[in-house]
Write a structure and sequence with these properties.
The chain has one domain. Helix content is 73%, strand content 1%. Helix 14 packs across helix 19.
Length: 496
């Protein structure tokens, strides 16, 4: 009862609600504009909010996250350009509906079922986070090390067409995380004689560069054409018709939550799986899928927003982000001195409740903004990039400089932005790299601690790998790596 009261107290905190609303408005604009992303917006927010009270920073970021994932559907429906990767599937039926003059109907269904997906995902987070934390309390240092390796290998396999490219991206991130003073020996590592690197690479400029500046360079190089938004004509949609998909949407929400809990999977994977299930379940749809079937929008939007709560579960309980945005949120925790992991809910219950409250309030704002602002945003999503991109560049520079008030961080941001752009052009995923930068320090310390503890035992390898949890994690990690080796993959596919 005390926990419920603690969470709902945020619903009476006017300043907290305003912070969520500000984040929601930012998420609505960023998510709806093609070429921008929720990851980029969240990375910029890290630099802006690091001096704020922690609960207000989390409130703003939750607003951006929840509404930003949904608002990618607006441009997907109106101009056939998904504002976020998780909205790619929404274009399949959303844009055909818009071309038929039913864009208002498509937006309304997308809003309602994104709201349902958000509430479902955060309810799952509320219910399952504590039991998972209790299991994680039994983890040893070697278990944490293997869990991080498993997360990185999973990210590498799910965020890139080439598993090797995903792993190389993660290895590059691990190398970056090792730069600075050795935590045990106190000697410099890979600083190249540069004094400013002795403190290590700051997370904020790296994040802003990889997710913000690199996207600016990518947008400029690709030259997004200005698209004309579909004309919106209001129509009356009965509540009975709206809710006839509700029962099946809970199934799509379950898929989204479970996929979100897998490190590296994220909204795009969830929406594709849910869409595939919708096509399998619905035998004789009124309209063929891909030609304007409402259930296609319901499946995609339910799953990708439910994915938010699912992605937060491993991040909060195991310190393993579920997607790129939660990797950035993880950096917010470290910037504010919080330690996500098994003890987080017990040691910082108020922060856990602020995340839950921010998610639920963000869902409410999603519903309000989606119904009333979404249909009117068609003019904003076609803002010329010559106006928008300079503003983003300024925010990137200010955000990087504001981290430690030094120009060196701006140079770091430019370096990582250029690196991120090159990686995008070569189809190297950025998510494994940023995840490795965030987790590298934890992996280093836990591996050393595990070796130190095991070296005092008579049976070294039994002490390292002899526990059931350790064996399970080791098997999972090895199986993911082996199953993605090209020769092994071909044999698995051949047998299936």
């Amino acid at each position: 009862m005390k926990e419920v009261f603690s969470m709902f107290s945020y619903f009476l905190n006017f300043h907290f609600i305003i912070m969520v609303f500000i984040g929601a408005m930012a998420g609505m604009l960023v998510g709806a504009i093609p070429g921008l992303s929720v990851s980029m917006a969240t990375a910029l927010l890290v630099s802006i909010t690091y001096t704020w009270p922690t609960d207000y920073a989390l409130a703003t970021i939750m607003g951006v996250y929840v509404v930003g994932v949904f608002s990618g559907a607006i441009s997907a429906i109106l101009i056939n350009i998904p504002g976020a990767p998780s909205s790619i599937v929404t274009t399949l039926d959303g844009y055909p509906l818009a071309r038929k003059g039913e864009s208002y109907k498509a937006l309304k269904y997308a809003t309602i079922y994104s709201f349902i997906g958000t509430m479902f995902g955060f309810a799952a987070l509320w219910i399952f986070a504590k039991p998972i934390s209790n299991i994680a309390l039994k983890f040893t240092p070697m278990d944490y090390f293997l869990l991080a390796i498993f997360g990185l290998s999973t990210v590498g396999s799910l965020t890139s067409k080439s598993f090797i490219k995903g792993i190389l991206s993660a290895l590059l991130g691990l190398i970056v995380s090792m730069i600075g003073l050795d935590s045990v020996m106190g000697t410099s590592r890979m600083t190249l004689g540069i004094y400013d690197l002795k403190a290590g690479v700051s997370i904020v400029p790296a994040l802003i560069g990889l997710f913000g500046f690199s996207e600016v360079l990518s947008v400029i190089s690709k030259g997004y054409l200005e698209a004309e938004a579909s004309h919106i004509t209001k129509s009356v949609i009965k509540i009975k018709d709206m809710l006839k998909y509700f029962s099946r949407s809970l199934y799509y929400c379950t898929i989204g939550t479970l996929v979100g809990a897998l490190p590296g999977a994220g909204g795009p994977v969830a929406s594709f799986l849910a869409y595939g299930e919708a096509k399998r379940i619905v035998r004789n749809p009124p309209v063929p899928f891909g030609e304007g079937e409402i259930e296609g929008i319901v499946a995609s939007e339910s799953a990708n927003n439910a994915c938010i709560g699912g992605a937060l579960i491993p991040m909060l309980t195991l310190a393993i982000p579920g997607d790129a945005v939660t990797a950035i949120i993880l950096s917010v925790f470290y910037v504010h001195g919080l330690q996500p992991g098994p003890m987080f809910i017990k040691s910082s219950p108020e922060m856990f409740h602020s995340i839950l409250a921010g998610g639920f309030i963000g869902g409410i704002f999603l519903l309000i903004l989606g119904l009333f602002i979404g249909p009117r945003i068609s003019k904003i999503i076609t803002v010329p990039k010559r106006i928008l991109l300079p503003l983003i560049i300024v925010l990137c520079v200010v955000g990087a400089f504001g981290c430690n008030n030094r120009m060196f961080d701006v140079y770091l941001m430019l370096f990582f932005g250029t690196l991120g752009y090159i990686m995008r052009m070569r189809d190297y995923p950025i998510a494994p790299m940023i995840l490795a930068i965030v987790l590298g320090g934890m992996m280093d310390s836990n591996f050393r601690r595990a070796i130190s503890l095991a070296s005092s035992e008579d049976r070294f390898f039994a002490a390292l790998f002899g526990r059931p949890i350790t064996i399970i994690l080791l098997i999972l990690t090895i199986s993911v790596i082996i199953s993605n080796i090209p020769t092994a993959k071909k044999k698995i596919l051949y047998k299936s």
